[in-house]
Design goal:
The longest helix is centred in the middle third of the chain and has 18 residues. The protein has 10 helices and 25 strands. The chain folds into 3 domains: 282 residues, Glycosidases (TIM Barrel, Alpha-Beta Barrel), CATH 3.20.20; 97 residues, Elongation Factor Tu (Ef-tu), domain 3 (Beta Barrel); 84 residues, Golgi alpha-mannosidase II (Immunoglobulin-like). 23% of the residues lie in helices and 25% in strands. Strands 1-2-5-13-14-15-16-17 form an 8-stranded parallel beta barrel. Strands 6, 7, 8, 9, 10, 11 and 12 form a 7-stranded antiparallel β-sheet that branches. A 6-stranded antiparallel β-sheet has the order 18-19-20-25-22-23. It is an alpha/beta fold and 481 residues long. The protein is elongated, with a radius of gyration of 24 Å. Helix 1 packs parallel to helix 2.
């Protein structure tokens, strides 16, 4: 359940070397994370992937193997064992932190056997166009029997009839997009490439009732086994909206739990996010990808108009459904969606997602701890911004988005949080200042820059206003002394 001023932390990055020990690391850090103001962790996929201990988690092999069986050359996953995973979730709960499990149901990879089947070659650039009129026989990795698990938890075995396509013919070694005989791509997916049902691997056919039944059965098993509090849904623009709408409704009814759920619909087009929310009847929140792209554009430009930083974003147009973020494992350097926000702008971006009253912010592990693979240091001031959200960022919000290079806002505080209230000023050019209203009840109060960029103090005048300064290309957050 989303809490007032709650914060999610995405507790992994793509290249992290956790030595199959991430779950234990979280157990050790849980109390500290709670003290910092973290109220939920987005955990990486916990099940066995096709490359075993080296698998980040998105090439899903056996979703029933949470680090329990000797499969793909390892018992533990990249992150640890099943027992460690279950203990970690308990420890997080004891420290007031919810667990959101990463769910990857779009595709399967690492099959246990091949099948030779009829298929039609499809144009990679237009998934609705056949390249040839004739079917051909192809050898595909579509038989999943999970010999290491020996039918524990489920005796369901996957074969080619449970999928609708694949991108590799093992007979010839040809990389091409193949749609299986008598199959069609699923509807209610993104319209890129004509129909973006197919992404990678053996693509699940959600028109197949047996597939839908197995996914529901697995979801119920997963919740009963792990006791997680919610989900992060992967690659939802490639999965029919009707499937996840029914899936999450079924699990909420079965468990009687709220199961906070956020989906990854990767598009900078806000209209597509609105459409998905409508199609799923508002049951699934979405990551605010358009906001991330605004941050990236602002960080890589010398003339970005800061008054437009929230334009065409989910947090502005439907804030209750928006999970805001600065970067993640897909946008970090050397990733397919690389669009890493420049270091100078990171504190500005985090002040926008952490210190405003709209949206549910998600902090990225790579920003908090750094990314050694790319020699990226952890972001300075993130702990301070988290503290400010937890202790000071309350009350009515007044915006001053009235200058292309200098914007700000004030939060007027509330009676429940002592000394709450703050003033934020942002510059993407030179030093500046903004006169902003804090409230007449603050008359005579002294404010200081919590980030330490500006040394002088600000005294609120008889009209309840202060003249708050900011250094060039930075952010200052002013709080009561």
């Amino acid at each position: 359940m989303r809490r007032l001023n709650g914060v999610i932390m995405q507790y992994f990055e793509w290249f992290m070397d956790c030595k199959q020990n991430l779950w234990n690391d979280i157990i050790r850090n849980a109390e500290k994370l709670s003290q910092k103001g973290i109220t939920a962790l987005w955990l990486p996929p916990a099940y066995k992937g096709f490359s075993g201990k080296d698998e980040v988690g998105y090439a899903a092999y056996d979703v029933y193997d949470l680090g329990e069986f000797d499969q793909k050359g390892t018992v533990k996953t990249k992150y640890g064992s099943k027992d460690e995973y279950l203990e970690m979730i308990q420890v997080l709960r004891q420290n007031g932190i919810e667990s959101y499990a990463d769910i990857v149901l779009n595709h399967k990879m690492g099959a246990d056997a091949f099948q030779t089947i009829p298929a039609t070659k499809i144009d990679f650039g237009d998934h609705n166009r056949q390249i040839s009129d004739n079917e051909e026989r192809i050898k595909v990795a579509t038989k999943f029997t999970f010999p290491g698990r020996k039918h524990k938890y489920s005796d369901f075995e996957w074969n080619w009839t449970h999928f609708d396509g694949i991108d590799y013919n093992d007979e010839t070694g040809e990389n091409a997009l193949f749609r299986f005989k008598d199959k069609e791509w699923n509807g209610e997916v993104d319209e890129e490439y004509g129909n973006y049902d197919y992404l990678m691997g053996a693509d699940l056919d959600f028109y197949n009732e047996k597939v839908v039944e197995e996914c529901k059965r697995w979801g119920k098993w997963y919740l009963d086994m792990t006791k997680v509090d919610g989900f992060r849904l992967d690659a939802i623009k490639h999965i029919p909206a009707f499937f996840y709408k029914d899936w999450i409704k079924y699990l909420r009814e079965e468990t009687g739990k709220q199961l906070y759920t956020v989906g990854e619909y990767w598009s900078g087009d806000i209209s597509k996010l609105h459409q998905y929310i409508t199609s799923t009847e508002g049951q699934i929140s979405l990551f605010d990808v358009p906001l991330h792209y605004n941050f990236f554009a602002a960080s890589t430009s010398w003339d970005y108009d800061l008054t437009k930083i929230l334009d065409n974003t989910l947090v502005k147009e439907n804030s209750s459904m928006a999970v805001t973020f600065v970067d993640n494992h897909d946008t970090q350097p050397d990733q397919a969606l690389q669009s890493f926000v420049e270091p100078w702008f990171k504190p500005i971006a985090y002040s926008i997602i952490l210190l405003r009253n709209e949206g549910y912010p998600c902090v990225f592990y790579g920003d908090y701890y750094g990314i050694p693979h790319n020699n990226i240091e952890k972001m300075e001031d993130l702990d301070t911004l988290l503290f400010l959200r937890k202790e000071r960022a309350y009350g009515n919000q007044i915006d001053y988005f009235d200058h292309p290079n200098y914007i700000g806002w004030t939060r007027q505080g509330d009676l429940e949080h002592e000394k709450s209230g703050l003033a934020v000023v942002i510059s993407n050019t030179e030093d500046g200042e903004k006169r902003m209203f804090m409230g007449e009840e603050f008359e005579g109060c002294t404010f200081i820059d919590a980030l330490g960029h500006c040394d002088e103090e600000v005294i609120i005048d008889e009209e309840g206003c202060g003249c708050f300064k900011v250094k060039g290309r930075s952010v200052s957050v002013w709080i009561m002394k």
